[in-house]
Amino acid sequence: MLPTYLTLMLLFPLLGGLTFAVAGRMLPRTLVEVLACATVWGSFVCAALAAAAYTGPQVVTLADWFATFDLAIPISLYLDPLSLAMTVMIGFVCGLIHIYSVFYMREDEDYARYFALLNLFVFAMLTLVLGETLPLLYLGWEGVGFCSYLLIGFWYSDPANADAGRKAFIATRIGDVALMIALAWLFQLFGTLSITKVNGMGFLMPVSVITMLGILFLIAAMGKSAQVPLMVWLPDAMAGPTPVSAMIHAATMVTAGVYLLARLLPLIGGSEIALAAIAITGGVTAFYGATCALAQRDLKRVLAYSTISQIGYMMLGVGAGAVTAATFHLLVHAFFKALLFLGAGCVIAAMHHEQDIYKMGGLRRSLPLTFWSFLVGAACLAGIPLTGGFFSKDSILLAVWLKGGVLYQTLYLLGLITALITAYYSFRLVFLVFAGENGHVHRSSGLTVMQVVLIPLAILGLFGGLLDLPAYLGGGYLSGFFASLPADDLPSASHEQEIGLQTVAGALALVGLLTAYLRYGKGRAERMREAQAQPSSLISFLAQGWYFDRLYDLVLIRPYHALARFLWQRVDEAVIDASVDGLGSGVGGAGRLFGRWSTGKVAVYLISFAAGAALILGYLAWLAL
Amino acid sequence: MSVPLSHVLIVASLMFAMGLGCVIAWRANVIMMLIGIEIMLNAVMLTFVGGSAHWGIADGQLFSLMLMALTSAEVSLALAMVVYLHRRKQTVNTDDFNSMKG
Amino acid sequence: MEATLFYILAAVLLIGILLAITARQAVRSIVYLVTSFFALALMFYLLGAPLIAAFEVIIYAGAIMVLFLFVIMMLELESPEKLAKPNFKNWLPALLLAGAVVGALVVLLASRVQAVPPGFTEIPVRQFAFALFKQYGVAVEVVSMQLLFALVGALYLGRRR
Q: Which of A194, A271, A349, C55 could be joined to A211 by an S-S link, Cβ 3.0–4.6 Å?
């Protein structure tokens, strides 16, 4: 039964996407909406059935794709705890976001394109997660990138949106190239691209090779998961519709990098240097994202930077070798980040597409459902004790702590500081948006349904911790489930240690909450006044994302423009075009010169002919002399 | 008869050169051009007949006869064309007939 | 005796042609040319080709030249304003090229001095006829076809529209 479930899981969104892409405009709007939701929920049901039927890791080969010479790439799917957890999460979150989209996009005329891309995205994401061979994974990887590009630029008539799409596409492309190189190299090394086989053969290679491969995969993950230094695209990606931001740029696609590294950890884990590089990238990114989120004024950009930061945590977890912790955080994060984005979508819809948080306020009375859901999401993000985010984040920090050594202890401290900042900016957001007065909202018909969708996500975020409770509370379901995964053999912590670390983290989160309350809850009026003034240099430094965009503009884009202009004007036009033009005009001139000879007058021809005869005879006579 | 072949050929070449000169010089009159061509053809016939007499083979004379037949055909066509062109342009100056200009 | 006659005839021929190509009027040029062709016919006879000599008189001097005369008269080319005389500028390239051709040919002839004593064999008409109709029968047919085409062509070009 398992192959059937898996096939159907992929086929539903693929068929849906293709149908809408080809014939979507001819179908009535309601039908498209219902079908789009039905395909994704169908996928979710298949994923749930597969989970029910799951007994152990299993490779399901559906068909042959390539079979030439020694390169054999079957279309085969791999179901293990990691991919199973991912598929269930993707099906559920995407299903909810599809329902939300129906109401959020109610006024948009281009529903067919929207739902076609959304469905194709789900298909690509599931392919990425389920693919047993790396090329299949790569296909999904590029598929999600393509859908993401089109969806960021969904409202392409505004050039800024189209530019944001292009920026995302190009930035992630750098990572994709690294992935492509890694795949070619892997094939050259092992002669196979099957993930399970490759994972089992890592010990055959010298550590330096594994390190290089690990770095290449890390670069790929940097691009897709918006890690430092390739993170510049994600804040701009918020130009897309809010459900797209929630689905692609928060819950699913951006975690693909984490998934890739977690999937290949048995291979990469052979190299301590590669793991350290991953952990450093994650830690730095977490800190970077959190600091940037402090100063943003745009509701969605705050969430985008928090996404960057949270994925940094996941990378940190992978770098510490804790796949379970990273995946746990990935799942919980998907729930609460989708919740936050969808809540933000409700707020934005209610505020006439106003996204500046300083212009909001007082929404807790007018949008109570959104407020409570958003509060749960923010609490998860901040890691307030006993929420899902608290447990998942602490399991990562615990793993980093247990890893030991100066590097990881430094990263642990960085993680703690980041947790403090995270708590602070989460509640800054909550206080600015929902506290205070000025609670005037615009109620549209879809708003109620959109708010209802938040409830299951809020429940999952709040109680997500139950998935993997700490050992002193009886151990978690997820840990037991993931125990079959290799390379997850971390030293287990004593209960006292664990409780101690969690107390520290929880205390920090509460401190962040308290500070935010003091500054933005009580001192709200003062902050509002400050917002009117010119921002200080530190604030603008953070608000501009540490000026990374300008740095890249200075270091990469301008020299590239200069080089392109040089090649265009000096090389292409002055040398290549000029020589070709010169050749052409030279031949043309010679042709015109000889063409003048053919006057059409008999006399000229006769003289030419006689001159030729005289010449030949003269030559013969000269020979005879 | 004791005329060397080379003398016959010299006469023929002189005749040919005069015909050539006539064709080139009389560019204003297509009739005179045709006359020049006739002179050149007769020079060729003289060469053929001289060769035929020298080697005692009938082929040279035979080709002279062929030439004569071809010439008559050519002249009849050429003169018909002259009449036609004169009717169109009222002139026999070849410089005015340049519709074949490339 | 015969050789002397040959050279006299050659002189008549060349002078006649020279006068023909420099004549002021086309009709005079035709008359000079007829004279030259008569001389040429006699030279053919002296070179042992009586049949060609007869055809030369009949076809060239008789038919073709008369055809030229007809055309000249028909187009009224006698009036001086219709005929642009070649001036020195026209004659210069003609003289140069003709001189070059004659010079080259004379040089070539002189370099191949005939060792064989001059002597002409007469070819009887019978031998000529055998060669013509046995050896070159196809050529005769082709020539006859060509004459037919020329006839048709001339009729087509000459018809009144």
A: A271
Q: Do A118 and A32 touch, CB atoms closer than 8 A?
A: no
Residue A449 belongs to some domain of the structure: yes
Question: Among A519, A543, A567, where does a domain finish?
Answer: A543
- In contact, B77 and C153? CB cutoff 8 Å: yes
Most confidently modeled range among A457-461, A556-560, C84-88, C147-151: C147-151
Same domain flag for A389 and A438: yes
Radius of gyration of chain C (CA): 20
Residue A559 shares a structural domain with residue A539: no
- pLDDT for res A487: 47
A119 within domain boundaries: no
Domain count within chain A: 2
- Measured between CA atoms, the residue of chain B closest to residue A613 is B20
Within-domain flag for A372: yes
Domain boundaries defined on chain B: 5-92
- Tell me, what's the pLDDT at C116? 56
B97 lies within 8 A of chain A by CB: yes
Do residue A295 and residue A428 come from a single domain? yes
What are phi and psi for residue A77, nearest 5 degrees?
A: -110, 150
Closest approach of chain A CAs to the CA of C103, in angstroms?
A: 8
At residue A217, the pLDDT reads 93
- In a shared domain, residues A459 and A591: no
| Contact state of B20 with A610 under an 8 Å Cβ cutoff | yes
Q: Which domain holds residue A312?
A: 271-543
The CATH code that applies to domain C1-80 is 1.20.120.1200
Min Cα distance C142 → chain A (Å) is 28
Q: Is C6 on the interface with B (CB under 8 A)?
A: yes
The answer to whether C157 contacts chain A (CB < 8 Å) is: no
Residue A58 domain-assigned (yes or no): no
Could you read off the pLDDT of C4-50 as tens digits, one per residue?
999 999 999 999 999 998 888 888 889 999 999 999 999 999 888 88
Contact list in B for residue A593 (CB cut-off 8 A) is none
Cα of B32 to nearest chain A Cα, Å: 12
pLDDT at residue A584, as a whole number: 92
Which of A530-539, B62-71, C82-91 has the highest average model confidence (pLDDT)? B62-71
State how far the alpha carbon of A379 is from the alpha carbons of A202, A325, A417, A425, C127, in Å.
41, 19, 17, 11, 128
Taking the CA of residue A584 and the nearest CA in chain B, the distance in Å comes to: 20
pLDDT of residue C112 exceeding 50, the answer is yes
Count residue pairs from A and C with Cβ separation < 8 A.
32
Q: What is the pLDDT of residue A476?
A: 65
Nearest CA in chain C to B21: C94
Delimit the domains of chain C by residue range.
Answer: 1-80, 124-161
Residue listed under structure tokens 């510049």? A232
Provide, rounded to the nearest whole percent, the portion of chain B with pLDDT above 70. 96
Contacting residues of B for A598, CB less than 8 Å apart: 100-102
Range 69-128 of C in CB contact (< 8 A) with A:
93, 97, 100-101, 103-105, 107-108, 111-112
Domain boundary among A543, A565, A590: A543
What ipTM describes this predicted complex? 0.89
Take residue A303 and report the two structure tokens written for it.
């969430």
Interchain proximity C97–A611, CB inside 8 Å: yes
Instruction: Note whether A313 and A284 are within 8 A (CB).
Output: no
Q: Give B5-92's CATH code, choosing from 1.10.287.3510, 2.102.10.10, 2.40.50.1020, 3.30.930.10.
A: 1.10.287.3510
d(CA A202, CA A200): 6
Q: Which residue among B20, B23, B99 sits closest to A600, beta carbon to beta carbon? A: B99
Q: In 3-state terms, what secondary structure has residue A213?
A: helix
Which residues in chain A land under pLDDT 50?
487-488
Write the DSSP assignment of A136-204 as a string of letters: HHHHHHHHHHHHHHHHHTSSTTSHHHHHHHHHHHHHHHHHHHHHHHHHHHHHHHHS--BHHHHHHTGGG
pLDDT at C15: 94
A597 and A462 in a common domain? no
- CA-based radius of gyration for chain B: 17
Tell me how far the alpha carbon of residue A153 is from its chain's centroid.
Answer: 15
Most A CBs within 10 A among B22, B24, B31, B81, hence the mutation to make, goes to: B24
